[in-house]
């Protein structure tokens, strides 16, 4: 199985990018992981919120293949503890899915088409974080999930 994280816009903070890269490197010992960064929509400031979500949605849909399981990182999604998230990952690996895709949308969230295409929603917290911070939190939790599945000493209960 491959896990892909699709995001809109690059991480412009070098310290955050360094930490994201650290966890990306660690993940390669557990699973094939891809970070797919879609460039920001051009002239986004001139677009309405709905039009921006629609244009971002079109770009996201181009990255999704039939058979992919698509999970949106969304504030209204299901919340897990780290252990529950590791079990969620194991369930998907056991299901035989080839590609599990997590998506971080743009500043206004997702278009209706993306919600319709998705197989579920996941929330990292009830709090709001910058999209760049969410990338770091997500890849760290992904790494943590795999260390839990392998009973490695990274996670403490």
Automatic annotation (TrEMBL):
EC numbers for this chain: 2.1.1.177
Broad class of the protein's primary localization: cytoplasm
Cellular compartments annotated: Cytoplasm
Keyword Glycoprotein carried by entry: no
Enzyme class: transferase
Gene3D superfamilies: 3.40.1280.10
Residue sites binding S-adenosyl-L-methionine per the record: 73, 105, 124-129
Keyword S-adenosyl-L-methionine: yes
One Pfam family this sequence matches: SPOUT_MTase
Reaction(s) catalysed by this chain's protein: pseudouridine(1915) in 23S rRNA + S-adenosyl-L-methionine = N(3)-methylpseudouridine(1915) in 23S rRNA + S-adenosyl-L-homocysteine + H(+)
Quaternary context: Homodimer.
PANTHER family xref list: METHYLTRANSFERASE (PTHR33603), RIBOSOMAL RNA LARGE SUBUNIT METHYLTRANSFERASE H (PTHR33603:SF1)
Protein family per UniProt: Belongs to the RNA methyltransferase RlmH family.
Protein name: Ribosomal RNA large subunit methyltransferase H
Source species: Gaetbulibacter aestuarii
């Amino acid at each position: 199985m491959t896990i892909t994280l699709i995001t809109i816009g690059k991480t412009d903070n070098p310290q955050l990018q360094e930490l994201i890269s650290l966890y990306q490197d660690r993940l390669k010992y557990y699973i094939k992981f891809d970070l797919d960064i879609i460039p920001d929509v051009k002239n986004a400031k001139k677009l309405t919120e709905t039009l921006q979500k629609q244009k971002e949605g079109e770009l996201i849909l181009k990255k999704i293949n039939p058979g992919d399981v698509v999970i949106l990182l969304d504030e209204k999604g299901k919340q897990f503890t780290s252990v529950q998230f590791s079990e969620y990952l194991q369930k998907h690996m056991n299901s035989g899915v080839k590609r599990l895709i997590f998506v971080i949308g743009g500043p206004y969230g997702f278009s209706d088409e993306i919600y319709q295409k998705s197989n579920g929603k996941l929330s990292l917290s009830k709090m709001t974080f910058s999209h760049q911070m969410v990338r770091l939190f997500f890849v760290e939790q992904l790494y943590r999930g795999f260390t839990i599945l392998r009973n490695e000493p990274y996670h403490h209960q």
